Amino acid sequence: xxxxxxxxxxxxxxxxxxFAVLGVLLGTxxxxxxxxxxxxxxxxLLPVTYSVPADSALIxxxxxxxxxxxxxxxxxxxxxxxxxxxxxxxxxxxxxxAKTGRAAQALATAAIGSFVAGTIGTVLLILLAPxxxxxxxxxxxxxxxxxxxxxxxxxxxxLGSSKLRGFIALFLGLALGLVGxxxxxxxxxxxxxxxxxxxxxxxxxxxxxxxGEALWVAAHLRHKPLEVIPVGQPWMSRSDWSRSWKPWLRxxxxxxxxxxxxxxGAEVPTFLSYVTERRLSKHPEEFGKxxxxxxxxxEAANNASAAGTLLPMLALGLPTTATAAVILVxxxxxxxxxxxxxxxxxxxxxxxxLASLFVANTLxxxxxxxxxxxxxxxxxxxxxxLYAGILFFATLGAYSASTxxxxxxxxxxxxxxxxxxxxxxxxxxxxxxxxxxxPRLEExxxxxxxxxxxxxxxxxGEPVAIICYLLMGLLVASLVVARLRSPRPTTPxxxxxxxxxxT
Amino acid sequence: MPEQTQQTPETTSTTRPVIxxxxxxxxxxxxxxxxxxxxxxxxxxxxxxxxFLPPSTFAYIVGAVLLLLSVLLAVAxxxxxxxxxxxxxxxxxxxxxxxxxLVLLAAVLCVNVFLIEPLGWPITGAILFTGAAWVLGSRHxxxxxxxxxxxxxxxxxxxxxxxxxxxxxxxxxGVL
Lengths: 503, 176
What we know:
The complex is a heterodimer of chains A (503) and B (176). Chain A has 503 residues and is an all-alpha fold. Chain A has helices at residues 2-11, 14-32, 38-45, 54-78, 88-99, 103-137, 141-158, 163-178, 201-219, 238-260, 267-280, 293-316, 322-333, 342-345, 347-378, 383-402, 405-423, 429-451, 463-485, 492-502; strands spanning 180-182, 185-187. Chain A has a two-stranded antiparallel sheet with strand order 1-2. Chain B is 64% helix and 0% strand. Chain B has helices at residues 2-6, 9-13, 22-42, 56-78, 99-119, 121-135, 141-162. In chain B, helix 3 runs antiparallel to helix 4, helix 5 (99-119) runs antiparallel to helix 6 and helix 6 packs antiparallel against helix 7 (141-162).
């Protein structure tokens, strides 16, 4: 408790509070702006880590993280085209509500639900993080290796409809992670001295998230403008409140555990929350026509899972969402390595970050309810400027990472790869996680083999490792079963999800 | 579903699946990458005796799996597996990729790669923004250039004064 109060005293200094406000505003703005998500924003803002102190920068990123989640839901309510995969479900009922003149209520239940879920999620994070810390310190290299392997496999197979494309992304990422000097010899450097330290992850993140996305959208730019539903001040009536509070709590209960699992992501819990609410609702006939429960539940699940994601990231150094992956890059540019020792060695920083999550969450509610009409206007920004601006800041971010034109060339090459991945339906998340975890996977394996003097059986010599391999086996087996049952090679979730969107 | 909207009427009338030929290019790219990764592994010296995990091991594994994935992708493509291209707020998938826009944007970015040090960021940054806005369809020259110049000079000073990151001043060195 003392530690948390100390964290608040760091988070509430005027400077840090300013960074939190900035983060929340920026995060919401870019969450609302089409084509930009929270991961891209944090990637574009990585240059600030070169001189802004670690606590301020991380507080700002916490604001962006929560703000981006909220902004994404605004777009999917006011336009029927969700920008982030986690707000696909919100669009189902949210846009229908907006079309029947209930945009204000949809935005309000999303904002308040996000606040409730984010607060509960952060409390859970604060309760669990100190407990998990000492546990993971005891893990040996074999267990750590197994956990990373499970995270890589589950992130790859759980998300997206094509497992093949997931693995393509993962192994492209691992291949990029191989670049650099190992044991005093160059590996995959193509003879470039600039590559001997490995590819700068900042460049990979900016290229894949920002440049690839901007090029993809530019090549398919919609020529007629989207229809934005006008909105006033968000508010809710008494009956809206009584219909919303239970879905908020149920959504939170679903979202946090899914976020905290190393398989992460908000797609599964938001979908489960939607299905649950439809089943439990007293107004099932309203579903598909704009039921408020269908916005309240998934939005809460979305934010709770965002809080849950931070648990494996801080305790194990395992990012399971794109935004968490980029925040991890930010940690690394401060020379901080989240993982087993991180929590005990950087207590002040961790508690300041946790406290700032509360601050960000509260600011989000205070700022966003009155600002909703302003955000809706942001949707009208001329597209040439929006995408030219993304290209401009992507270039700036990549150049400032090492102040070398070589990195700009690399940015362009990887940006084209990012474009191709979008064209061929290859998910970007496994790639970025492969780049980050690949080298660490090799490091842990090397350490494990060093200790066992080259005996590979050490890899299944620890109970945690055995559990991980069993889990992985179960996951793969369940996929095989699911595939045998349904003639189409997609997971049951994504099939139903698409049916919902089409109705 | 995106793959249905992408299909033209003549293809939906036949029962034979549509083959996305461009996917073979992706498969070929994977094969080349995998081949290079594995080949690079063979070029490395064997590990010393105390090195239980030689640096080539991961290269062999990643290279071999990439080769396998390229074969699987090629087979899936031949069987009519179509990719689900990414959707988004501003994305219109009803027509194919606009190659002209892509090539022009890549050209604008290339100009920046080669000229950033000789000319300096305030100039190439402005060219980058204005050029990209033009490629994307903006025709308000004065406004485009004004925003581009404001952004590039603004970021130059913000990075120099605020973040202590000196961006290249190029030919304006001494003026700024």
